[in-house]
Amino acid sequence: MKVLIIQNKRIGDVLISSVIANNFKAKYPKSEVHFMAYDFTHGVIMNNPNIDKIISINDKELKKLPVLFKLIRQIRKEKYDIIFDPYSKTQSKLICKFSGAKQTIGHKSRKKLGNWGYYTHPVTISKEKTKICGKAIEDRIHLLSQAGNFEPIDYEPKIFLSEEEKKEDWLGRHKGKKVVVLGVLGSTPQKSMPYAYVAEMVDFIASNYDVNILFNYAPHQKEEAQKIYEMCKNKSSIILDIYAKSIRDFIKLMNQCDALVSNEGGTVHIAKALNKPTFTIFSPYVNKDHWASFEDGKFHHSVHLLEMKPNLFDSFTFEERKKIEKNPDELYKQLTPEMILPELNTFLKNNL
Q1: For residue 152, is it within any domain?
Q2: Which DSSP string corresponds to 126-175?
Q3: How far, in Å, CA of 97 to CA of 266, rounded?
Q4: Which ranges does the record mark as transmembrane (predicted)?
Q5: Is the domain of 66 the same as that of 182?
Q6: Are 339 and 210 in the same domain?
Q7: 194 and 327 belong to one structural domain
Q8: For residue 160, is it within any domain?
């Protein structure tokens, strides 16, 4: 049996979609499983024994029709039996429709006129989560279930490091203390806390715990991370001279650290897959039920503005809400350090 999983989205999405490959191989060990993903996301699925081949695609290039048509021809030649399409993007829908695969499985469009025969097995997206793994993983398992009974299900994404990768020394002179990785910036402005709040959080950790705090950020965010560093009072505990240039490097680095405190995003899913304790700060614009996975309030914990102010939106008119949505900082300013720090303190006491 030959299977393709298409996940043309970001790092966290790719990692959690690998649960399809893991469970499929567990039931059909002789099957051939391919995984199509953007080139910058491959680090989270490298060395996964349940994935026989990674097909690399480029986001910008795939939007060009000649590139897409060429890829569709390549997919047809592979003669897949089953294709799973968790994100159901326009390009992946077209790949499924013209793939020639016996079974194509993806999510139904929310638009009434949007299901134009892209899939042989269109699946309705569930409205809410029912398991601790979170709705995003549940949705992918629902797709998997269309191809058979895969019980018992393993809901936990996994990252596979080679023995050589585990032996690499990333912390060097900083190995004397425990290291907390701090995601100082989100992947987008909508997922990033106000800089002053981040600096206050850094100073709180440095003042109350004998740890090193390793700043984590994307390459293009270096200048912004430096701005946060300059706002911190306790700079001596901050590690700025260790930087993971790739996703795979971050995985190897995170594997040698002790905890992650971060805005919600791919790094949180990576840390969880490495069995590291995580404290996640959700953007007010993110639906926590979709992405909060395996949270027990101790080893994995998170904060979200609407949990602390459940009636927040009731005080805004429709016009005010629209204005706020155009200015992401407005809601994030209401998720103050005074709300976050007591929760963070409990998490650090439990895990350091």
Answers
A1: no
A2: PSS--STT-HHHHHHHHHHHTT---PSP---------HHHHH---SGGGG
A3: 29
A4: none
A5: no
A6: yes
A7: yes
A8: no
Pairing of strands 238-239, 32-38: unpaired
Per-residue CA distances from 210 to 179, 206, 351 (Å): 9, 7, 13
pLDDT at 113 over 50: no
Q: Does 82 lie in the same domain as 209?
A: no
Question: Does residue 340 share a domain with residue 236?
Answer: yes
The parent domain of residue 52 ranges over 2-145
Contact present, 1 and 147 (Cβ < 8 Å): no
- Indicate the angle between helix axes 65-78 and 90-97, nearest 10 degrees: 40
Provide the 10 A C-beta neighbour count for residue 66: 8
Q: Which two tokens stand for residue 28?
A: 């059909």
pLDDT above 70 covers a percentage of the chain that reads 92
End residue of a domain, out of 107, 129, 145: 145
- Cα first-last separation, the chain: 46
Domain membership flag for residue 164: no
**Count of domains in the chain?**
2
pLDDT digits (tens, 9 = 90+) for 252-286: 999 999 999 998 889 999 999 999 999 999 887 77
| pTM for this entry | 0.91
Q: Which element (helix H / strand E) includes 278?
A: strand 278-281
Domain with residue 257: its CATH number is 3.40.50.2000
d(CA 216, CA 235): 15
Arithmetic mean of pLDDT over the chain: 90
Helices (H), the chain: 11-27, 59-62, 65-78, 90-97, 135-145, 163-167, 195-208, 222-231, 247-254, 266-273, 288-291, 305-308, 318-325, 329-332, 337-351
Asked if residue 151 belongs to a domain, the reply is no
Amino acid at 200: E
